[in-house]
Amino acid sequence: MKKTRGNNRCGKKIGSNDKSLIVDIESFFDQLEELFNTLKNDGLNVEWLLNKAHIDRISDILEVIDEYNEKTEKMSKPINNFLKSINSFLIDSRKKIEVNAVGRLTVIRDDGKKCNIDILSSGERQLLVLIANVILNKYTNLSRVIIIDEPEISLHLRWQERFSEEIISINPETQFILATHSPDIVGDLTEKCLRVGA
Fold first, then answer.
1. Which terminal residue of the chain, N or C, has fewer Cβ atoms less than 10 Å from its own Cβ?
2. pTM score > 0.70 for this model?
3. Which class would CATH give 46-192?
């Protein structure tokens, strides 16, 4: 940098004898030299400048990873809600349902053995289908009304007592119309019931 300094040299290099322009150029080089000396004395900054492109690339990658994680979390939310709900019922029969990497449902028995959902009882399968429909309806643009005819069929009495409150808590934006003969399905929701025919 020192080689380019000096009024005569600067003027000749840019082809000008304008003193104010030469003073501005000199000032620029003075500031540049000062910055260079500061960076030279502080090895960390020089190293940072040399690696800035890599740092920017890493920042971009981290941003992409954050976006991916956010989308993955959003996509897995319905599945996680489904598993939480169905497993809260199956705890009575000491079974647990998991979804594997390819989206297949697996039943884990009390002894840890993984089985196909065919081992579920008819009531467990009915509950699985009902809860899956309630949850998936929440995440689609389908109608916000679900009609369920006699949900108590094949459901254990303890499950009947919890069923209505569970589906409402899963999908509070949906209107549920349940046709039932079971007072346990109704539970504490008698004020929302309509008795039909005798």
1. C
2. no
3. alpha beta
Token look-up 């884990």 returns 108
Asked if 142 and 173 touch (Cβ cutoff 8 Å), the reply is no
**Using CA atoms, how far apart are residues 120 and 70, in angstroms rounded to an integer?**
34
Strand partners, 148: 178
pLDDT at position 44 is 56
C-beta atoms surrounding 82 within 10 Å: 20
Tokens of 146: 């679900």
Pair type for strands 114-115 and 105-108: antiparallel
Top pLDDT among 87 and 25 is at 87
List, for residues 68-79, the tens digit of each pLDDT value. 989 888 888 888
Q: List the chain domain ranges.
A: 2-41, 46-192
